[in-house]
Design goal:
The complex is a heterotrimer of chains A (about 250), B (about 120) and C (about 120). Chain A is of the alpha+beta class and about 250 residues long. Helices cover about 35% and strands about 15% of the residues of chain A. In chain A, the strands form two sheets. Chain A has a five-stranded mixed β-sheet. In chain A, helix 3 packs antiparallel against helix 6. By secondary structure, chain B is mostly helical. The chains are: A alpha+beta (about 250), B mainly alpha (about 120), C mainly alpha (about 120). Chains in contact: A-B, A-C, B-C. The interface between A and C is medium-sized, with 19 and 16 residues. The structure holds iron/sulfur cluster and FE2/S2 (inorganic) cluster.
């Protein structure tokens, strides 16, 4: 078995005069290591200036997403062994501004998340004495979409997000659906107007790669197509039955 | 991109996509492949003509044709729009694609009307 | 982004091929319009048109279009199963089942068309 494996890592420091560059690092090749272990090895033993985000090491926090050999993955869930013999190229997620090395700026996603009101909206004032009960069946309507960990892999896989400035992208739309389908929520109509506007669902051409890379099986592509169906239905009701309810 | 009419065009795109997926391959298999290769005989003229003559079949055919064309228009518009990165031509692309689909449908309507 | 972004990944290439099947749809639809036109014009024109379909260029175009149409049908049936959420009672019907309903409809419609024509 090989002893070492080479990582080619994207390095960028905004304070340096030189632009971005790839740097090579040799790390021990261990069967039980994921990419994130190798990165931590580099940071602890070889080059303390390397910057990257991580926290849980178990696919929950969603902060360790990077492009590995061109594919967006969670680095805490990708074993070195699967990528042997190397070299392995590690880059920040595509389409995001780079803050430093492998750290990206995801403000755009955060802003959009607010824009689509990704929280439960009540039409009437909250009655604090009353509980909002939900059956397991009602929960199952949106549970899949609620599994999203905001890892941004789907954005990195979406060419339309790269091509169309302003497109809200897969996870935000899936998360809007997560609240639309929640039996306790009344924000459907509000979100539909946002989704029909610039930046919304109609930019999507169903490339489908977002669902393929999602580590949590959220299926954002499916969520968007469901949304389009719903949007089209609402459109025809508005035009054909102006007196009808959308 | 103006989104006001996206749901409208998308609806035709979807309906046309479903219809063309269900209907076209078998018709192509007959007229485009089996007949030219001589695996089956040409459909007889009189039989074909009398099959299509009733108004109901002509309406059905017209629906298939126009929806398939609108399916093409919408899909092709986005292929050019994203694939060739012609975002700045959005309006012209829409007019070109939907316009030609409608024109060809009108021609089909003319042919079927005077059948 | 480069203009060739769709060559970067296999899934993107598949996507662009899927989108280009719309050309096959349009091409064949126009061919059909001319078939109906030839039927309208009379038996001679019809037979001439059928001869025309036998020319090597048309056979080649039709074979390529057939590949496109098949790819369109298959991808369409599989993907529409993702957009359509069918529920029986409380349970969501799995996508595979929705897709197989599509395929069954495809077979039935194809059979009916062959039966009507022959
Ligand atoms: S939808 Fe999936 S890929 Fe996208 S951010 Fe959420 S968990 Fe990550
Ligand atoms: S470190 Fe938390 S998801 Fe990878």
């Amino acid at each position: 078995m090989q002893q070492q494996i080479t990582l080619e890592i994207f390095r960028y420091n905004p304070d340096d005069k030189e632009g971005p560059a790839y740097k090579k690092y040799e790390v021990p090749f261990r069967k039980d290591w994921v990419i994130l272990d190798a990165l931590n090895h580099i940071k602890d033993r070889i080059d303390g200036t390397l910057s990257f985000r991580w926290s849980c090491r178990m696919g929950i926090c969603g902060s360790c997403g990077m492009k590995v050999n061109g594919n967006p993955v969670l680095t805490c869930a990708s074993f070195l062994e699967k990528l042997a013999p190397g070299p392995i190229r590690i880059e920040p997620l595509e389409y995001f501004p780079v803050i430093r090395d492998l750290v990206i700026n995801m403000d755009d996603f955060m802003d959009n998340l607010k824009k689509v009101r990704s929280w439960i909206i009540h039409e009437k004032d909250d009655n604090l004495d009353e509980e909002y009960l939900q059956t397991p069946d009602q929960l199952s309507d949106y549970k899949q979409y609620s599994m999203c960990i905001n890892c941004m892999l789907c954005y990195s896989a979406c060419p339309v997000y790269g091509l169309e400035p302003g497109f809200m992208g897969p996870a935000v739309i899936a998360l809007a659906q997560r609240y639309n389908m929640d039996s306790r929520d009344d924000g459907n109509k509000l979100r539909m107007d946002i989704m029909n506007a610039e930046g919304g669902i109609w930019h999507c051409t169903f490339v489908g790669d977002c669902s393929a890379v999602c580590p949590k099986n959220v299926d954002p592509a499916g969520a968007i197509q469901r949304y389009k169906l719903e949007g089209a239905r609402a459109w025809w009701t508005r035009w054909l039955l102006p007196w009808g309810k959308e | 991109m103006k989104h006001q009419f996206e749901p409208f065009w998308w609806s035709w795109f979807s309906a046309g996509g479903t219809l063309s997926a269900l209907v076209l391959p078998v018709v192509m298999m007959i007229f485009g492949i089996s007949v030219p290769f001589g695996w089956i005989d040409d459909p007889e003229y009189d039989k074909l003509k009398s099959l299509i003559a009733p108004v109901s079949s002509r309406i059905l055919i017209f629906i298939c044709i126009s929806l398939s064309l609108l399916h093409w228009a919408h899909r092709f518009r986005f292929t050019l729009y994203d694939g060739l990165q012609l975002q700045h031509l959005n309006r012209s692309l829409a007019i070109l694609c939907y316009g030609s689909a409608i024109l060809i449908s009108l021609f089909a309507g003319y042919v079927l009307w005077n059948f | 982004m480069t203009i060739f972004w769709w060559t970067r990944k296999k899934s993107y290439l598949r996507f662009i091929l899927r989108e280009l099947t719309s050309l096959a749809v349009a091409f064949f639809t126009i061919e059909m319009i001319f078939l109906f036109w030839s039927l309208k014009e009379g038996p001679d024109v019809y037979h001439e048109f059928m001869e025309f379909l036998r020319s090597p260029v048309l056979v080649f175009l039709n074979l390529s279009a057939m590949a496109g149409l098949l790819f369109h049908s298959i991808t369409w049936f599989n993907l529409s199963a993702k957009a359509i959420v069918v529920k029986i009672g409380k349970a969501r019907i799995p996508g595979k089942l929705v897709a197989s309903v599509n395929y069954i409809a495809w077979i039935i419609i194809s059979a009916v068309i062959v039966w009507i024509l022959y």
